[in-house]
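Bug #2210: token dump truncated for Ig-like domain-containing protein?
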Amino acid sequence: MVQTRKKWMALIIAAAMAFSVIGLGLSTESVSAASKKAPKPKKIYLKATSKRVDIKGKVRVSVKSVRPKNASKKVRWKSSNPRIARVSKNGVVTGKRTGKVRITATSKRSKRVKKTITIRVKKMTPRVKIASKATAYTGVKKTVKATVGPKGVYNKGVRYKSSNRNIATVSSKGVITPKKKGTVTITAYSKENKKYRDKCRVTVRQSITGMKFAVASKEMQTGTTATNALTISPSNPYSKAVTYTSSNQAVATVNASGTVTAVAPGTATITATAKYGAKKTASYKVTVYDVLNASNGTYTLDESKYSSYRVSAVREGKPASITLTPADIDNLFGNGNAGFDWSNAMSVRDNFPKAAFNYNSGNDYIFSKSGNKVTIKFSDDVMRTSWYYVPDKSFVMEGNGYTLTLFQMADGTGEQISLTMQDNTLKAGSDTKGVTLEKNGDTIEVTATARGTTVNATLRSVSATQYTVSFDPSYISKYQVEVKAYK
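Reproduced locally. Full output below:
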């Protein structure tokens, strides 16, 4: 009767399980596959058959493979004598005292499948290894890291020492701080015993410590090339090699030798970087402009294309010389300071303290002294004329103030025109000298005379974004008129 009940219970349970599988939409095959586990291994292979470990040292043992390949690799580790060496569940063996033990790996799926490895525990001699040579640069730290072997050695600690701290020092972590050019030996010692050591010969080279361009900024016309002298300090670094880069290659490019090519109006920063050592840098700003062409003496200024313009002119001239004796200087200049006009074209401030000639405005002269005579030869006979124009569509019709400098002399003085519109009436400022103004509709005719030279200019509003500046066509070549346009 009891047997009959057990049979009926088994049938009911089987039917319920079948119903559950069908109701969930699962096949009996998928249930069977889900319940499968990795097969039991028949053999275990370790990565080594024997290893050595220092007293207090550590070494890892691990499974290399199993058969079949898809069998479980999970094992339990056990030491034959934990007093000589013990092993963790992850296979890390720690030496305790001199001796030999067997570490056994037993499959977690089958206690019959196991493999052993022999571990010899003995006092090990550390071997210190460091690079035999290295190169460092002043101003740049460098690390020379020593290693300690063999595997399983307990004390892997290292101390470092420099043979000459004036050339280079070294930290406890092997970081070298170069001090000056020279050669130094860095020794790495085992912390266990100083007799275990290795040496590295370090050559310290002099880095570039500073760089400076001759000028901080430079203007260039589109399509031209230019260089900017670079001063490097100290004068005797290991290498003076530098790399050049441009912050805006659409405006200006620079080649490996530092030659800059102006591509299009705008600004760019040219940077030089030391190739070796401390990687010092220097930079300067390049402003590229277009030069406008005149049409019958008239230049069109278009603020939709450019943000500002500069119009300049210089008078043609030939080298001239003047010879003065010390007595002439005393008689003519008295207190040592005087100004004179040269060919009605140039005003120069000269300073003659104690009969020594010094041209304050620059180096546009050649100076020589012979006996009691001082000879001054000017490099050219120049009248400099320049003025700046920033497009402003309202300056004519809405009355904003505007200043136009027609004459800019070598001593910094000039003839300026201050224009103001009030109630549609054009007025010139009180600083205007030798200037006549005539307004005809939206056109301003300007005539200025200074030191025997007359310049005529025309300012005319063309549209909301364009203006024109006109000169007598003959002046453009005579006075070398040039209109520069900037972004």
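Output looks complete on our side. The first helix runs from residue 2 to 23. Marking as cannot-reproduce; reopen if the truncation happens again.
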